[in-house]
Amino acid sequence: MKVRYSLAGAVAVALVVGATSASAQADTTRRTTTSQQRVRVTKEAAGEVVRRDSAFIRDSVARADSITRMETMRRDSIARADSLASLERARRDSITRDSTARADSIARATPATPPAATTDTIRNPTLPTMSSDSYGMRRGSFYMGLGGGPNIPTGTVEDVYKTGFNVTVPIGWQPVGSPFGLRLDLAYARLNGREASETGLGAQPDDPNIWSATANATLDLIRWGESRRGALYLVGGGGFFRFTDFYNFDRSDNDPESAFEGDPVTKGGLTGGAGLAFPIGRTSFFVESRYTTVDTEGTNTKWVPVVIGLKWR
Hints:
The protein is α+β, with helices and mostly antiparallel strands. It is 37% helix and 37% strand.
């Protein structure tokens, strides 16, 4: 009996001890597990915080860069807008200047509107200003012409020579609003020698040649017709005359004497006369005659050229 109780007690004690040991081991195991879990959780939490801080910094830097780029783009946009505004202002100023210049040009080109007729102007009409045209050319501009006709000797020259011909090129200019003008006449004249029986010289003289360049002034006396372009004018001046094959015989003492002996010679002389002009479109038909006298030995050599031709700009 005692042995049974002892065995039973031992078994009970052993159970108790084993339960206690198991409980202690389980408690130790739970503590260890809890400690490991706490440490692991703490480490994992720290790593997440580090990762979140790094992401925040990267986001902050990215946002700062984006803000900087946006600010740069805004400033560039403002600069471009200012540049475009400046270009637009320059374009408008250029258009304004061009419009003003065109308006001024049109205003200058548009003739002034003549004043309306009134009772006073009807009773006392004002004389029209000088036309912009005078015998076929626009006044205030250069003109030139071409003409020719007979060349008639006078005085003692007529005893040796008879009528020949002339070719004349007038080159002139007349100021606006003035009846006066200037003209250069370049001319070639020729006379025909008389038969020996007419001169009593025993031989027929050669036909002389006369080259001349004279500076002349012109004066319009009367104008008529459309725009007062028809004209009666005076012309006169002086210049130089070149003679070749010319003999001038002075018969004042019945002693024929050659002044030049046929040698070429240049002498000064004067010329003057009048003319008529008849406008034909932009040209002018003119007829004029000038008395010419040249200072030669013995007596002056004289002739009268008649010039018929056209003048144009």
